[in-house]
Design brief:
The protein is an alpha/beta fold and 363 residues long. It has 14 helices and eleven strands. Helix 6 packs antiparallel against helix 7, helix 11 packs across helix 14 and helix 12 crosses helix 13. The longest helix has 19 residues.
């Protein structure tokens, strides 16, 4: 009797895919069972997984960074995979749905119906949602795409603080949130297909740091978008410079000339957040920048962004970012300091290197 076939993992490539992630996933799965024995025992181990790169058509796909991705087989020719991985899709978050992926969408539906584990990394969840697989489920995607996911697919429940979600019947829908969390996804798939120890061996070989804190510490508010509601747009512009004022929501309501309930409803329809939630988000983003770039005591940071009670600020920061303000400073302040120390041409001072913390909407 021959050996059982290895679990087949189909990695989907499209023109919106990054070659580095597609090939990175391929290498991660190919290394399972192979590299640990080679490094520790001096002999190449037996592979545990059978990854293939698939696309709508055979040949070569030119990815989003203009690098070619060699396709192993067309989707129509791929034997039923055990796992499907959809890497990121480099869409502009605020543009309309991409329509040219009918082949991929139909194939994802077929694979799911046949019992495959359907997974996505980063913004690849947008393709799963376009296939209708995520309706009614909790989902995660890259933080910059959470609003687009809510807007385009109102039947899904977006959880931006989660780095990895497994949901659906038999937990056969799995999503990893941020850009580099495709490595978390890869480890999860290895653990699920062949065992935790195999996944741990790969993590030790590749030196993967699991993103157990989620993706919120890395998030920046991404709302500098064209608003159809000119009144709310003016209020949003004003708030970008006055979020630390004592009562910014009341001030916006007064400026708008709208009744309070109408303002609340229109603000949420335009921005995806209630006014107070939006104020807190702007304040926390500015606090992140202060923690990264300076040495102000936490109480002073709280006051600088509009909170008189440092304890309230600390609780809110932890709830929104998933780590404490002190942990954030140590993690990202140290990273910024290290980069600045090795920045002979002054990149840190170049506009656009750091994402803006203040948000202005054009009405």
């Amino acid at each position: 009797m021959g050996a059982a076939p290895l679990p087949k993992i189909a990695i989907v490539a499209t023109p919106l895919s990054s070659a580095s992630v597609v090939y990175g996933m391929y290498e991660l799965f190919r290394s399972a069972g192979r590299d640990w024995d080679w490094l520790v025992h001096g002999r190449v181990g037996e592979p545990l997984l059978d990854p293939v790169i698939v696309a709508a058509r055979p040949g070569v796909v030119i990815g989003c960074n203009e690098l070619p991705i060699r396709i192993d087989m067309a989707m129509a020719d791929c034997p039923a995979p055990d796992v499907v991985c959809v890497p990121e899709s480099v869409l502009v978050p605020h543009e309309q749905e991409v329509k040219e992926f009918n082949v991929e969408v139909q194939w994802l539906r077929q694979c799911h119906a046949r019992g495959a584990l359907i997974t996505s990394a980063c913004s690849g969840a947008m393709l799963l949602a376009q296939a209708g697989l995520l309706d009614g489920h909790e989902v995660t995607t890259h933080w910059a795409y959470c609003d687009a996911m809510r807007r385009r697919h109102p039947a899904v429940r977006v959880q931006p603080q989660r780095a990895l979600i497994a949901t659906g019947e038999g937990h056969r829908l799995v999503m990893a949130g941020g850009g580099s969390s495709w490595m978390d996804l890869g480890l999860y798939i290895i653990a699920r297909c062949v065992g935790v120890e195999a996944a741990m061996q790969v993590a030790r070989v590749v030196l993967i740091d699991w993103h157990d804190i989620g993706q919120q510490p890395f998030a920046r508010v991404a709302r500098a978008v064209q608003l159809e509601d000119a009144v709310i747009g003016r209020c949003q512009n004003w708030l970008a410079d006055h979020y630390a004022d004592p009562a910014p929501v009341a001030a916006m309501i007064e400026q708008s000339g709208l009744p309070q309930r109408s303002f609340q409803r229109r603000f949420k329809a335009a921005t995806g957040m209630g006014p107070l939630e939006y104020v807190h988000t702007l304040r926390i983003e500015e606090a992140k920048h202060l923690l990264e770039t300076g040495a102000l005591p936490l109480a002073a940071v709280a006051q600088e962004v509009g909170y008189e009670d440092p304890a309230y600020f600390s609780r809110l920061f932890r709830r929104q970012v998933n780590i404490s303000a002190g942990q954030y400073r140590r993690r990202f302040g140290g990273m910024r300091a290290a980069l600045t120390a090795h920045d002979p041409i002054g990149l840190a001072a170049v506009p656009g290197i750091r994402a803006p913390t203040r948000v202005a909407a054009t009405a």
